[in-house]
Amino acid sequence: MNDDAIFQRLGADREVLTVSQLNARARSLLEDVFPRLWVEGELSNLSRPSSGHMYFTLKDDKAQVRCALFRQHAQRVRMDLRDGQLVRARGKVSLYEGRGDYQMILDSLEPAGDGALRQAFEALKAKLQAEGLFATERKRTLPSHPRRIGVVTSPSGAAVRDIISVFQRRAPFVELVIVPTPVQGRDAAPQIVRALQLADRAGFDALIMARGGGSLEDLWPFNEEVVVRALAACQTPTVCAVGHETDVSISDFAADMRAPTPSAAAELLSPDQRTMLLQVERAHRQLQHCMRERLKREQTCIDSLRKRLRHPGERLAQQAQRLDDLELRLKRAQTHRFVQLEQRLERVSARLQARHPGQRLALLRQKLDPLVARLPRAMTQQLVQTRRQFDGLAQTLHLVSPLATLGRGYSILLDQRGQAVRSRDDVRIGQSLEARLSDGRLTLRVENDPDAPHTLPLLD
């Protein structure tokens, strides 16, 4: 039913409601209008009936409101409630129709100072997470079979007894060393840091940092920044087991592994000796089975090899027989080869005899004798013919020779360079020339040019 419908119906004329109807509408109106909210006040009139529910009143100096915390939510409250305690409650506003009482139905209850601690918790967690202090790649793997484990906790707390009990039951052979430190109070954080540093240098296979459950204030040392950083700086694998399963501390995020309880931390690091014995027995049976199977296979192989194995004398007899066979084959091959070589030698000798140089020389001598007789006649005929050709060529050469022309009374004029003078334009007056005759040479000088025009003197 929405708000508008409720107010419309309340405004209807002449509508008469029963008390139950009035209280039902009032409860519905309160629950619809008010969201889930937090209320802080002083606890009073606390009542715990056998049903497990809790009823009380929250008040301040001016007003009060009745509250109900039902069993399923009351079981999660770990603090000891008492009258006069300042608490912070979360729930919804409602109305108890039976009495018409206005009340709050709660689902969470915590001390009033817890809210500031929660804010500090979330702020530090966000800061360290941004630095990568909780990164998965920083986590180390826990040893599967540790021999020596350090336990950083209070030696008088229940956590150490739970851890010792689990190891005695599951792995009594593992050495446990208690590194004592306070786990609660203002001075607990620096002492926890010193205990962690001391344990980290002691060479343990793993470390357990543990304490039992408590309120947020009780567990606060494990939310201190110095403790978280010291835990993250440990080189030894660490398990954080602080509080109960629902408790969460910042150290849980910095450790290599978080355990919900100290007993669970011991379970993580203690190999169960019964399980180990079962594994050893199972491995022993498997080993025996494998050995039997291996022996069977090896025996089968030996039997097979024994059947294939022969006596050395038999092997030597076979080799001797094979050697005799090879010797006979070698002799036959040698004889056959000798016959082949003799036949080839005869063929080569016959071919060589057929090509003997004496026969070749006799044939050539028969051809040479007629040639020797024909050579002088051929040479004489060739010389006569060549002389006739030479005489004809000499006569032809003489006819066209300049010397023949000179013999007929002509001469050849040559200038200083030995070039023939072909025209009168090639000479000048006073130039020396050489005349070549058939029987020698003459040196001449040009006196004048008879064909050139000249002027006679008038007075002569």
Automatic annotation (TrEMBL):
It catalyses: Exonucleolytic cleavage in either 5'- to 3'- or 3'- to 5'-direction to yield nucleoside 5'-phosphates. CDD domains: ExoVII_LU_OBF (cd04489). Residues 133-444 form the Exonuclease VII large subunit C-terminal domain. Its EC number is 3.1.11.6. One of its GO terms (biological process) is DNA catabolic process. GO terms for molecular function: exodeoxyribonuclease VII activity; nucleic acid binding. Residues 17-109 form the OB-fold nucleic acid binding domain. It is an enzyme of class 3 (hydrolase). Keywords: Cytoplasm, Exonuclease, Hydrolase, Nuclease. One of its GO terms (cellular component) is cytoplasm. Signal peptide: none annotated. It is found in: Cytoplasm. InterPro entries: Exonuc_VII_L (IPR003753), Exonuc_VII_lsu_C (IPR020579), OB-fold_nuc-bd_dom (IPR025824). Heterooligomer composed of large and small subunits. Bidirectionally degrades single-stranded DNA into large acid-insoluble oligonucleotides, which are then degraded further into small acid-soluble oligonucleotides. Belongs to the XseA family. PANTHER family: EXODEOXYRIBONUCLEASE 7 LARGE SUBUNIT (PTHR30008:SF0). This is Exodeoxyribonuclease 7 large subunit. It comes from Halopseudomonas xinjiangensis.
